[in-house]
Sequence to fold (269 residues):
Amino acid sequence: MGYFERALLFGALVGILTGLVGTVTVLRGRIFFAQALSHATFPGAILAAIAGVNMLLGAGISGLILLGMMLVLSRVPRQGMQVATGVTLTAGFALGSVLHALNPQIPLRPETVLLGNILFVTASDITLVIATIAVTVLLLVALRRPLLFSTFDPDGFRASGGREWAVEGSALVLVVLTTIVAIPATGSLLAIALIAGPPAAARILTRSWIGMIVLAPILGAAIAVSGVLLSREADASAGGLIALLSGSVFVLALGARHLVKLRQLSNRD
Fold:
């Protein structure tokens, strides 16, 4: 398999993964938190490069540590998750920038982590994303009842004795894992486009969460593959094109819904 075929396969798999995890993230209203976690992987990747170990390993450890910090800060009285997210986002990104400035000799460039380069993916990257998809599906199946309960009726879930922090933590761990495996394709910054765009479009086009969790991975895979193909024709960044397509699909979904409503109104008249 050539490098371009690997890029297409990896993009399709990342699109499926981000569609699954993004559905949970969108339904729970945690896109801003997901963005903070994408920044949280940056300092770990830089530290891994300094230590000479795998970049994704360092990004994962960093993301999980800062996720724990965010959950702890969110429980501070009169602060909440929004404040914790803002602190984590800025601190994570700033720490990565400072570490790189203090170690300019490392072979890892910040844009590689932040923006990715899908044309350089390896067979091990593909294996990792397949394993992450399998873990994600297993977790979503195992946690489907508390996850749905806490998502659609958070007050009832807490009143029934449910542990909101455990469900929230599990959902955000999936975001960290997804961001990490998506780094070679879109980088940590642009990964949020695939996590948010396809599920948000699917939410417009379908009326149920089941429809979302089926349609979002399909849209994600189609967007990622299209971005890779366009990058070759336009000689532009695949990650940037994937992010632009994600936003475009969302806008098109909004437009399609508006046209359907207009047609329904005209038929009534």
User: Anything to note?
Assistant: The mean pLDDT is 84. The chain is about 85% helix and 0% strand. Residues 12 and 183 are 14 Å apart (CA to CA).
